[in-house]
């Protein structure tokens, strides 16, 4: 006899969403999480990172205020205050997640759970039966296999540094690396970003990648492409990082952001018959079903689209399908996303290169301009917007933006792309003036 209808392993956003929704539909649900509720997003990702991004913007805001008639005294920044305030909010969110689970009737277990079979989990010395099991254990940062890698921090440790480093080298070219480069630079650190490829943000639209790189350099970030860290050595009170180009960087901190891995090691999945990919990801079908019928997986541990809202959607779809008689599959196409770099990115749909590979002919509309705010400040900052359109159907296949408010604007662009809106419908929409968003409905002539 089963103790539960559903046992969720992992208390991140996806696991919590799945457990709550299933319990609300009447299932007897348990969720095991040995750490704080909320997972990477709440405690080591989206939320604390956005707080640090906000903090990093104030340096420029103080400078820009003078152009608008404000006199601001010499500002000072205290890292310890920021971190303490951030930690206080995360404690509150942990309590909120636990209350939501309790209110939904979910049994929470503050311990690590492993899989002992298709319908059994082990927590401590207890064996617990469950008709279904959902793996929602997320991912973890990877460290490069180089001499001295143990001297470096990852994004996990970056949120808990005792002091703000005066000099930092960040290794990687993905969104985590570029976001933290903007954070540390904005807070006053001398920041170098090294990436082994020819351009940062692989997988994003080419104009987005170039726009972010240009903006980062304009803000004083030392961006070194086609360069990587070869070894790290401690010296005095700091670190020496030697690059593949033979350069030596003397810094206070090295941060590696060179990828994440599914957090599935030691869960007993292979032993239970669950098929895993080479990197440890749980292989699932379009219903989030693993090779074992009673075991499913959602979120970053499946390495599909590794975004918090996607994990939530996957978890809710699973609950709808199995506990509400409403079969739903998560749709992983045209997912809007943001990069909280400086300048920030908002993007949805196909890149220009992807569109050229998928359809016969496309039209590309693009504009680049100085934001109205900086006509007075004189700051050398630009905004880039772009639409990728199927020439035959006039459908907007992709919308991309680099610049202030891009993450906010792309949410509604995501709705339009999902609804298969056409360029003519964009054109028929009256602009909201003066805004950056109006440029999306005033583009007239294709540039390619």
Folded structure, characterized:
The protein folds into three domains: 200 residues, FAD/NAD(P)-binding domain (3-Layer(bba) Sandwich); 110 residues, FAD/NAD(P)-binding domain (3-Layer(bba) Sandwich), CATH 3.50.50; 105 residues, FAD/NAD-linked reductase, C-terminal dimerisation domain (Enolase-like, domain 1), CATH 3.30.390.30. The radius of gyration is 24 Å and the shape is globular. Helix 1 packs parallel to helix 8. The N and C termini lie far apart (64 Å). The strands form five sheets. Strands 1, 2, 3, 4, 5, 6 and 16 form a seven-stranded mixed sheet that branches. A five-stranded antiparallel sheet has the order 17-18-21-20-19, sandwiched between helices. With 448 residues, it is α/β, with parallel strands linked by helices. It has twelve helices and 21 strands.
Brief summary of the model shown:
This protein is 31% helix and 24% strand. The protein is of the alpha/beta class and 448 residues long.
Question: What tags apply to this protein structure?
Answer:
5-stranded antiparallel β-sheet, 448 residues, FAD/NAD(P)-binding domain, 7-stranded mixed β-sheet, 3 domains, alpha/beta
On the 0 to 100 scale, the average pLDDT is 97
Overall spatial form: globular
The tally of helices reads 12
Q: What is the subunit organization of this protein? A: single chain
Q: How many structural domains can be distinguished in the coordinates?
A: 3
Taking pLDDT < 50 over at least 5 consecutive residues as the criterion, the unreliable ranges are none
Q: Note the gap between the termini.
A: 64 Å
CATH homologous group name of the largest domain: FAD/NAD(P)-binding domain
CATH architecture annotation name of the largest domain: 3-Layer(bba) Sandwich
In CATH, the topology of the largest domain is named: FAD/NAD(P)-binding domain
- β-strand percent reads 15-25%
CATH class call of the largest domain: Alpha Beta
Computed over alpha carbons, the radius of gyration is 24 Å
Helical amount among residues, as a percent range?
A: 25-40%
């Amino acid at each position: 006899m089963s103790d539960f209808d559903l046992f969720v392993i992992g208390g991140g956003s996806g696991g919590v969403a799945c457990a709550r929704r299933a319990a609300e539909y009447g299932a007897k649900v348990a969720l095991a999480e040995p750490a704080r509720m909320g997972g990477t997003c709440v405690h080591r990702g989206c939320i604390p990172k956005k707080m640090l991004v906000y903090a990093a913007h104030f340096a420029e805001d103080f400078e820009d205020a003078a152009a608008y008639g404000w006199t601001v005294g010499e500002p000072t920044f205290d890292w310890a205050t920021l971190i303490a305030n951030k930690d206080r909010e995360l404690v509150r969110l942990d309590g909120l997640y636990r209350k939501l689970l309790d209110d939904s009737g979910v049994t929470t277990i503050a311990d690590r759970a492993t899989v002992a079979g298709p319908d059994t989990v082990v927590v401590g010395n207890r064996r617990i039966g469950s008709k279904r099991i959902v793996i929602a254990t997320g991912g973890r940062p990877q460290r490069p296999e180089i001499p001295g890698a143990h001297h470096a921090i990852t994004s996990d440790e970056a949120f808990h540094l005792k002091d703000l480093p005066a000099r930092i080298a960040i290794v990687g070219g993905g969104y985590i690396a570029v976001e933290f480069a903007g954070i540390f630079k904005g807070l006053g650190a001398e920041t170098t970003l090294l990436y082994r490829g020819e351009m940062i943000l692989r997988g994003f639209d080419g104009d987005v990648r170039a726009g972010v790189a240009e903006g980062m350099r304009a803000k004083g970030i030392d961006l070194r492409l086609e360069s990587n860290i070869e070894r790290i050595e401690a010296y005095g009170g700091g670190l020496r990082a030697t690059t593949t180009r033979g350069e030596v960087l003397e810094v206070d901190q090295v941060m590696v952001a060179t990828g994440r891995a599914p957090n599935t090691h030691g869960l007993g999945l292979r032993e239970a018959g669950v098929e895993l990919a080479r990197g440890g990801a749980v292989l699932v079908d379009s219903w989030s079903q693993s090779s074992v019928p009673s075991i499913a997986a959602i979120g970053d541990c499946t390495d599909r689209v590794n975004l918090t809202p996607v994990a939530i959607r996957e978890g809710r779809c699973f609950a709808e399908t199995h506990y509400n008689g409403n079969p739903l599959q998560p749709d992983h196409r045209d997912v809007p996303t943001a990069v909280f770099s400086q300048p920030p990115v908002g993007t949805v749909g196909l890149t220009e290169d992807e569109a050229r590979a998928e359809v016969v002919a496309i039209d590309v509309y693009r504009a680049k301009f100085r934001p109205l705010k900086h006509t007075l400040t004189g700051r050398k900052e630009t905004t880039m917007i772009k639409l990728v359109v199927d020439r035959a159907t006039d459908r907007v296949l992709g919308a991309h933006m680099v610049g202030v408010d891009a993450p906010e604007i792309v949410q509604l662009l995501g709705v339009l792309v999902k609804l298969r809106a056409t360029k003519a419908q964009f054109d028929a929409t009256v602009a909201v003036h003066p805004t950056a968003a109006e440029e999306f409905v005033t583009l007239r002539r294709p540039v390619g």
